[in-house]
Design goal:
4 helices; five-stranded mixed β-sheet; globular; alpha+beta
């Protein structure tokens, strides 16, 4: 029997169809500091492979062929984790400088995030985890110009309003237990 533990199935990458491949590749290289690992044609489709992890050939692949009359983008968002608020601010500024739109800094209680849109309207989220858990969905605006400790205190106060507030470590232990049960089922 094949082992189906959580470590045997890991998320690797996402692909996005784009209209302007050079512009979008430049945006992800400049704004989010991806490295282009490969590029080429697969039939009539042109591809650019991008990664921020040397262990991964690509974490993001951009492909030509996005329909011009796309009425709805089925990708809700592409999310990236950062280690701290200072890094979140740095990427916020880079994204703005590279033409991201709809910039929206928020807290979810369990994270502090910046949402925006890339040049073709795909929604991006950059976030840092907080040490807390609270029920989701939750989204309240924050001011990134505030000091780190003010932002974290606001996120904690928001998270504490919810009855299932707990430390991230407690939540992770509970989820690990539930995942173990799911794997057995």
């Amino acid at each position: 029997m094949t082992d189906s533990s959580p470590s045997n199935l890991q998320f690797s990458h996402i692909g996005l169809y784009v209209n302007d491949l050079p512009r979008m590749a430049r945006f992800y290289r400049q704004a989010l500091r991806f490295t282009q690992t490969d590029a080429g044609d697969l039939g009539t489709v042109q591809l650019v492979f991008l990664s921020r992890d040397a262990r991964e050939h690509h974490q993001l692949v951009l492909a030509t062929g996005r329909p011009a009359d796309l009425g709805f983008n089925v990708v809700n968002q592409v999310s990236f984790r950062v280690p701290d608020i200072a890094t979140l601010r740095q990427f916020h500024d880079r994204l703005m400088a590279e033409g991201a739109s709809d910039m929206n800094p928020v807290t979810h209680g369990n994270a502090v995030s910046v949402y925006c849109r890339d040049p073709e309207g795909n929604r991006l989220e950059l976030f840092m985890d907080t040490p807390w858990y609270c029920e989701q969905p939750l989204r309240e605006s924050i001011d990134l110009s505030q000091p780190d400790e003010v932002i974290l205190a606001q996120a904690e106060a928001i998270a504490k309003r919810f009855p299932k507030f707990m430390s991230r470590a407690q939540w992770q232990a509970e989820v690990a237990r539930r995942m173990e049960e799911d794997q057995r089922g």
